[in-house]
Every structure is written in C-alpha cells, then in structure tokens.
Specification:
The complex is a heterodimer of chains A (340) and B (320).
Chain A lengths: L14 E2 L7 H26 L14 H9 L6 E4 L4 H6 L4 H8 L23 E4 L5 H16 L5 E6 L6 H12 L4 E7 L2 E2 L2 E2 H4 L15 E6 L3 H16 L5 E6 L17 H11 L1 H11 L4 H24 L17
Parallel strand pairs in A: 1-8, 2-3, 2-4, 4-5, 5-9, 8-9
Antiparallel strand pairs in A: 6-7
Helix pairs in contact in A: 1-2, 1-10, 1-11, 2-8, 4-11, 5-6
Chain B lengths: L1 E4 H15 L3 E5 L14 H5 L4 E3 L4 H13 L3 E5 L10 H8 L2 H4 L9 E3 L17 H5 L5 E3 L4 H13 L4 E3 L9 E4 L12 E4 L4 E5 L3 H14 L4 E5 L2 E3 L3 H11 L1 E9 L4 H13 L2 E7 L8 H5 L5 H11 L3
Parallel strand pairs in B: 2-3, 2-4, 4-5, 5-7, 6-7, 10-11, 10-13, 13-14
Antiparallel strand pairs in B: 1-8, 6-12, 9-11
Helix pairs in contact in B: 1-7, 3-4, 8-12, 9-10
Classes of the chains: A alpha/beta (340), B alpha/beta (320).
C-alpha cells in the first residue's frame, strides 16, 4: 500500500502506480466507461469539424483513466466539479450522452437547454456541479461543496478537478488553506496533462512536483500514474478514506496527457507529433485496460459487445444532438432574475 | 496607407512602440507563441522572451506585478485574453492601479496598458463574451479605450502605451480580421477625440467598438429612407468627447446611444443623461437586455443589438 504524504511531517508524496487490484467486472466497467468517453469525444470532434458545434470545445481524449478511476471510488452523494474540459467528467458521473452532445450542438435537448454549451453543464441528479469557464474558478467552489458536506455532517466528499495550468491561480492556494484550516472533505485532483494551453508545466510552474502544492498547509497528497485506471482507483480509495475519516483535504496529482489540442482551434505547435504518438502507443489507458482484461479471460466477443454498445450510445447521442430543436429565443428569459 | 487587419494594426503598434522605447514590454499567457488570437505573432522573435514575456495562468499576479513594474517606470502591456478573465485581477486594477497616482499625492504613476478583448465571438457563451467597458468607465483613475477600426487600433494602442495612467484597452474579438486602411509610421490617435463616421442632420447616433459598424449599416438603410443620421464613434469612454457629442446633438436635436453591452447601467446611460441634462433633447439608449449571453445562436442573437433594431429606434424617435 502506498502511504499518503503528510506535508506537516515533510514526507514526500510518492508515485502511485500500483494496482487497486480491480476485479473482472470492475475492470470491464472501467473499460466501457473510458471507451464511451473516447468515442464520444471523437464524435464531438467530428461534429465540430462539420460546423455543428460552435464556440469552444475542449476534448478529454487521453485522460479518460483519471475521471473513470476516480469515479470508481465514489459513492452516492459525492460531488464532482471541474473546468471547461468537462465532457468526460459528465459521462463518468452517469449523465446521458444525449444531453451532453445536444448541449454541444446548442439544442433544447441539451443539459442547459442550449444556453451553456460545451463548458457549462450541470446535473443535480448526478451531483455534477459544472462545467466552469474561468481557469481555476471551480476550485474555490469545490471547496464550498465540501464545506456544505461538513456543515451537514454527512460523509460525502467533493472531488474538485483542475489542470496544471489552473494550479498557479491564487484562489487555488487560498482554497488549499481554507480547506486545510477547516478540515474540509475535498479531494483536489490536479489533472497534470503537461500543458496549460500551449505552455508546458516546466515553463509555467517553478515547482515541478505539483503534488507538493498543498504541503505548506499539511495537505496529504499522492502523485499518481493517471494513465492507469487501476492506479487511479487505488489512489482514489486512499483519498476518499482520508476525507471520509474527517482528516481534511487530500491532493492527487494525476500524471496524464491529452492527445488533442487545448481546444479545437489549437494547432499544437508547442509539442512534437512524436511525443503524442509515443504516449498513444505506449501509455494509452484504454489499450492497457484491454490487455488486462485478456488476462481475466475476457474474450473478443465480450469486448466487441462493449464496443458495439458504446458505438450505439454515441451514434444515438449524435443523432439526437442533430435532431433536437434549437432553443427558442425566449429561453433568454428563463432561469433568470428578471427585471420589470 | 496600407490595408491591414485590426489585429495586425495592433501588432504593428506594439512592435513600433517597443522599438521606440526600450521600457515597453508585454506580458501574458502564451504570448511567446503569438497570443491566443495571434496578436503577438513574431514579436518574441524580434524582441526576445524578456520583453514578450510568457506568464502562467495567474491573472492577479500578472496584473499586480505589472502595476509594480509600472510604478518603477517600465511600461507593461498586459494581455488578459478575455475581459471575462481579467475579472480575476480586478483588485489589482481597480484598487491598486487606478488609485495609486491620486492616493499617493502624485508620488507615483502607473503607465500600464491592460488589453481586455470583449464581445460576442463564435458562440463563446456566458463566460467568454462579455462587454464590460462601463465597469471601468465608472472607476476614477482609469482610461477606457474601445477601438472600432484597424487605423484606430494602431493609433489608440500607441496612445495607450504612451499614456502615463492605466488604460483598459478593449479590442473586440469579432473585429480581429476586419481590414482597413492604416497610416504607416507614427500614427497616434489622441484619447477623448471622437470620430464622425458619417455626417447627418436628423439624429445623432453615438456608439463604439464593433457596434459602430452595425450603426453604420443602419445609417445606410436610413439614408435610403430619407433620414440622415450623424454617426459618432466615441473611441474612448474615458475621457470621452463631450464637446463633439453635445455639438452634434444640439444640431440634430435627437440622440441615440447604441452599444453591445447590457443596457442597464451601461455607458449609454451616462451619455444620454449628460446630454439630456444640458440640452433637454430627446435621448434614447439601445443596449443588450440584462441577461447572460447564451451559447446557442437563437439565444445568443436575442441579446444582439441589430441593424434592424437601430433603424426602428431611429424611426420611432423621428415619429416615423
């Protein structure tokens, strides 16, 4: 078992790449959920290319193991909040692919009825608290979700995701202090995909070990192989247990990688094709899970059944997203404090 | 004269000012790769990473540090990417930069340019589309500039860089590709001098930024209907050309102010009140409804002040 670092005692966080020992069925679920995100995002990229999606569209391809592994460790009632790279998080919490895709195309069947777009969706039912467009802004909000859990005396945990780029925002550090001071049950998940837009972590952050960013406040932390869903689940189990035991916040730095640009308009000239290709061919989370499944004697027919199921869900979502009607202009005057 | 884009005009202005004055430098996220929209393309190659400085995503620190650097006499041009993102650094701008000169009895100045792109652009939704110019016009100590043409984006950015007070410089994202004639060399547009886009005798329309172009099209339509509207591009909200607006409004007897920003508490209210107080003439505002900007085109369009709405407002004011 990996030990969580305790900043007060000055212990270093360690890289978790040991497996939680996912059983056959859990690994199958993880594979299916990661594949759903992958195929959903590929379809979103296609629809964007066809001009059916406007504005910003930040794809999660490559990082699927992070959100799927985390989700495996959560229970009913835990909250999830993240930035604008949010499609994967929504699917992982169980939000409908149809509603997410239809929001991307700006249709009335979307989660925000077309009013929010790719970056701004929410589901009370699935405890997904958004989809936020200002870098780092969701981190203080996630801290507040945890405050509410502590206030109500439940054992729910707030999983607050942000990127390596956001990790330099002032309110992130302010949130660390507040969460540690009040011993709030929040898991800060830094999805370190190595680039904040076009700037590498090395060029943006003086500390190259982001798992230590909470150390001044004694925030326990782990650095995790975010390309391995098994390792993510293992680390997430440690973090959730820590939070549920009333020991305060926990920080997980997920070492991950996005295969696509920051958004659809990013030509990606800040990194080489070889770098991307190397990650895809050697570290892909879905391929790795497929290999592990083979060891469980999961046969090709079973894999194909999952592939087909995922394909059907995504196609259905894409069809729905193109046939659902556009919102009426009168939607401007719904969900708003209206004057006079 | 050469024909260049609104974006290229500002790029040239910054490059020329950096060549002219070694104390001018720029800082922001991803400037080294040309800026998110390409406004800084090629500048790091000419001036190096010390003067075209990449910064982490830390708006408050970028702006606060730039205020300090400006107090020491350097002239930072700060890129905030979206006016929406600059809200992470409002304390540094409003409580520090805007107040320092007065509060310290003139012991210091803050020669700072904060570039905050505004406006609706490519369905960017509620957190990437706002026009917040009136917020800054409300703050004593700040200059607020909203260029509408390539020529002005060159001349006004130069004026902003040479200004010894903090300037909130708001380019409209939808105007980046707009091409127009731009004077070569040292073209500087002084602040507080409005531009008469077209003369007219029946009504005065005041606007700024991208909305000027909508108003110009509306004025063309009105001209076809026998109504001669005088269109004034205010260029800067503070200082603003009170004399030009008063003179025109006194002559036409009617004033319409149109802007993309929310009408409630917008700068149109200030201009309309100012003119009504002095001339007692008929005034009207045309601004967006007080609602966030929606993503889907039908909802986004519902906050847009169109050419048709402008024509209708003018006709109504003229009793037609």
């Amino acid at each position: 078992m990996a030990q969580a670092a305790d900043g007060r005692k000055g212990r270093k966080a360690r890289l978790v790449n040991e497996p939680a020992g996912l059983d056959r069925d859990t690994l199958l679920r993880a594979y299916r959920d990661m594949l759903l995100i992958r195929r959903f995002e590929e379809k979103a990229g296609q629809l964007y290319g066809m001009g059916l999606i406007g504005g910003f569209c930040h794809l999660y391809i490559g990082q699927e193991a992070v959100v799927v592994g985390l989700q495996l460790a959560l229970k009913q009632g835990d909250e999830v909040i993240t930035s604008y790279r949010d499609h994967g998080h929504m699917l992982a919490t169980g939000m409908e692919a149809r509603g997410v895709m239809a929001e991307l195309t700006g249709r009335s069947g979307g989660y925000s009825r077309g009013k929010g777009g790719s970056m701004h969706m929410f589901s009370r039912e699935k405890n997904f608290f958004g989809g936020h467009g200002i870098v780092g802004a969701q981190v203080s909000l996630g801290t507040g979700l945890a405050f509410s859990n502590a206030y109500r005396g439940n054992d729910n945990v707030s999983v607050t995701y942000f990127g390596d780029g956001a990790s330099n925002q002032g309110q992130v550090f302010e949130s660390f202090n507040l969460a540690a001071l009040l011993k709030l049950p929040v898991i800060f998940v830094i999805e370190n995909n190595k680039y904040g837009m076009g700037t590498s972590v090395e060029r943006a952050t003086a500390s190259h070990d982001l798992s230590q960013n909470g150390a001044p406040w004694g925030i326990a932390s782990l650095q995790v192989d975010g390309m391995d869903v098994d390792a993510v689940k293992h680390a997430a189990d440690i973090a959730t247990a820590h939070c549920r035991a009333g020991k305060g916040p926990f920080l997980l730095e997920m070492k991950t990688y996005r295969y696509r640009g920051h958004s659809m308009s990013d030509p990606g000239r800040y990194r080489s094709r070889e770098e991307i290709q190397k990650m895809r061919s050697e570290r892909d989370c879905i391929e790795a899970a497929r290999h592990k499944l083979a060891a469980f004697d999961v046969d090709e027919a079973e894999i194909k059944r999952i592939d087909d199921e995922v394909k059907a869900i995504v196609q259905d979502a894409a069809d729905f997203a193109q046939t659902s009607p556009e919102p009426d202009p009168s939607e401007l005057w719904t969900d708003i404090l209206k004057e006079g | 004269m050469s024909i260049i884009s609104y974006m290229e005009a500002a790029r040239q202005a910054l490059a020329e000012e950096m060549r002219r004055d070694k104390l001018v430098w720029a800082v922001g996220e991803d400037l080294g790769r040309g800026g998110v929209f390409g406004q800084y393309r090629g500048l790091v190659e000419e001036f190096g990473p010390e003067r075209i400085s990449d910064a982490p995503i830390s708006e408050a620190a970028i702006l606060g540090a730039s205020v300090g650097a400006a107090m020491m006499g350097t002239r930072p041009v700060v890129e905030m990417r979206f006016s929406d993102f600059a809200l992470c650094a409002v304390d540094e701008l409003v409580n520090q930069a805007a107040k320092a000169r007065f509060m310290f009895g003139g012991q210091t100045r803050v020669p700072l340019v904060v570039r905050e792109p505004i406006g609706m652009w490519r369905s960017s939704a509620a957190q990437h589309s706002q026009s917040l110019e009136s917020w800054y016009a409300h703050i004593p100590g700040l200059v607020v500039a909203c260029p509408s043409t390539p020529a002005d984006n060159k001349g006004m950015l130069k004026a902003a860089i040479r200004c010894d007070d903090p300037v909130v410089y708001m380019e409209h994202k939808n105007l980046w590709p707009l091409e127009g004639e731009v004077p070569e060399g040292d073209h500087v547009v002084p602040f507080g001098v409005a531009r008469t886009v077209r003369p007219g005798k029946d009504i005065t329309i005041v606007s700024w930024s991208a909305q000027v172009h909508v108003c110009a099209r509306a004025a063309d339509v009105l001209a076809g209907q026998g109504i001669e509207a005088e269109l004034i591009d205010l260029r800067t909200l503070w200082p603003w050309d009170q004399q030009a607006v008063l003179e025109s409004a006194a002559r036409t007897g009617r004033l319409l102010v149109a802007h993309e920003a929310v009408q409630v508490g917008g700068f149109g209210a200030e201009i309309a009140a100012f003119v009504a107080e002095r001339l007692g003439i008929k005034v009207r505002r045309l601004g967006a409804p007080r609602a966030p900007i929606g993503y889907a085109p039908p909802v986004e369009d519902a906050v847009r002040i169109s050419e048709t709405m402008t024509v209708a407002a003018v006709r109504d004011m003229l009793g037609k």
